[in-house]
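Forwarding these from the shared drive since the link keeps breaking.
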Amino acid sequence: MLASELARLVGGRLEGEDAELEAVAPLEGAGPGDLSFLHSARYADRLTTTSAGAVLVAEDLTADCNRPLIRVADPYAALAIVLDALYPPEETPPPGVHPLAVVDPGAELGEGVAVGPLTVIEKGVVIGTGSIIGARVFIGHDAVLGSECRLHPGSVVYRRCRLGDRVELLANAVVGSDGFGHARIDGVWKKIPHRGIAVLEDDVLVGAGSTIDRATFGETRIGRGTKIDNLVMVAHNCTIGPDTALAAQAGLAGSTTIGSGVQVGGQAGFSGHITVHDGAVIGAQSGVDKDVPAGTYVFGYPARPHREAFGMLAALNRLPELRRRIRDLERRLADLEDRPE
């Protein structure tokens, strides 16, 4: 497509000569036939060295660049539209059950459902219209999936769990496994039965290798539109509100409550039985051990308001210098004390 066509597609404005573009590439490796993008002004100096045919940039970016620019309100959002236009979507399998799949006669598959090879669907399962169940998927008895869900290879939905419409589980995601609950009895660990379920509302995405435990009793619930990255752990009886995002390797201990519109950075951990209120931001690798008020940004371990946390880090970085100064002062003081009067 021409850069001018892409600019119209994303509601942007082409600045510079038009060019024919056929792929998307990072700034460093892009050639004359590639579109690239700059999401952060922090890396604007790379615009002077790229060979890209055009670059998606923010409308208000001011930087030196000798390449054509497509100015848009949000380069990252525009990139998503461009990728759909330049690259064909993943092929979807035709409706029907693969001959190597095992589907219990008591399962109910909606119109247009596709089931891949080596998948097992147990008795009482209900799957809505147009859902795609990939290879080697397991769906336990009495589980319910809505319409247009997509379960990628190796994903698991355990017994009685419920998925809304358009839920997507990437490879090896697990919904409804037993939580980590054990009681110490007579010197040994006794497993506590988990009889609740896990519920994923409409438009939830669960990344590859992520796990969402079923409740001990009641529900573990993931709100509408929430996006969960790869390798995230959600323990039993947690509740996550709508439109929240959790980055890779975040971990929620049991009965954690996360509000709506919360952003959780990678490797952040939650101690359990705490509430993170709506719109909060949790910095990467933070350890959250108490409630977080709505709309606040916390960081560090233990998590603190980010200005306080960054101030402490700055002070920590100065410790070697402060230590040297204290030792110097101690030596000078000792010299003064040793002098005869």
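-- next protein --
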Amino acid sequence: MTENMKYDFNDLTVKLGGSNMPLCNFCGTCIGICPTGALTSDYERGKPVFDESKCIKCGLCYRHCQGIGVDFAALDSSFKGGENYDKYFKSYNKCYLAHSSNDPVRMKGSSGGSVTTLLVYMLEKKLVDGVIIPRPKPDQQWLFRPEIVTDVKTVKSSAQSKYCLIPTNEILNSLKDKKGKYAIVALPCQIHSIRKLQNEGNKNAKKLEYLLALICGHDMEYGATMFGMNKLKIRKEDVVDIKYRDHGDWPGGLSFYLKNGEKKGINFFNYHYLNAVYLPNRCRLCPDYYGNYSDISFGDSWLERLLGRGMNEKGIPKGWSSIIAKTDKGLALLKAAEKGKAIHLEEIGTDEIHESFPFNISYKLNGIFIRLKFARKKPEYIGLEKPEKLDRYIYHFIYNIILVMGGSKAFRFILMLLPLNFNLFLIKNFKKLMGYKPNARDKVLKYNEKSNVDK
């Protein structure tokens, strides 16, 4: 694909797989770089909206769509990580266990409050002029969009991951009229497009001084959130806030805060396994789990040895973060925050990073080649390294079939009619049938499973 080739949006949608665009995961890049505003966001449907009358057929959307393809060889050659190397997350500096030194921030976060703490630290120390995080739409507070935030209070109130498609990279358009440096919290796929734009000298992308990645096994279509609303008989117009890791005891499930002051929710285990039903097709075909091209990557930590360390008043463990400092800049930020007593860090080896995520490593970094083999529409990956031997081929083959069937309209309709914990029942018994051995994450979660499953 040459830089002087031109395409219209019809070419883009055909390459993405037709009108339903199964290779689009609403990263927002096309919207953020469109020079004429021909592309805008439909947040509820999780799709870009095209106004053909504004299109000048420049081809920018096509060339920078990570749904169509990613040149990993080019990203590897341009990315300057640390001197250490891991076969799963490539170049890096150091790995840590971490949590916020601010206990309320730690308790409110998804896993230790580390991302929130670093964003606050950067603002307070004026290392950046703003941070880019998901925020509720003012006129539709059940939906999220990226927003440039400059005050600490708003950052703290926005803690926790948002398990729904958010077009984070559409913020590039808003940076056009801004000066200064910014930090952005993004998913690995979104960072692929940002790094490509930075390498090309895109002025807006280069304003993103810090790229913080959320370790990502998958995202969920907005339909998963709507499933929760429908099950709980909630009208979306009555929702004033949504928290995805809040309901019940740790690690917390989906909560809806309503205009009348009520709070309703679905516990962690029943909501979490909706990822097998509302998984975006493009997420099913993504090979970047650890956010390999970020400055710092963040995720949960599920180490058994952490049980009993840092318990709240109910005897439930507080969250811990797994952190990978990828670049020198990222490492320097972490060490400065530690010195300023904003964050608690404990250096660990890569083995304990991987211990928290053995299934996702196998599923996303190994099973991806099985799913790509059988996918009708798939991205073009350049320089994607294939392991010498694919592990658990039969397991991944069958699981891929289940994901395809689980995402069908028929199964979603049936699931809506069945008891809330039916999907959990299916997943647990599938694991037993396939000889799935519990890992550290399963053992830690089982610690509090009964309080997180609705009868």
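The chain has 20 helices and 17 strands. Residues 72-455 form one domain.

- D.
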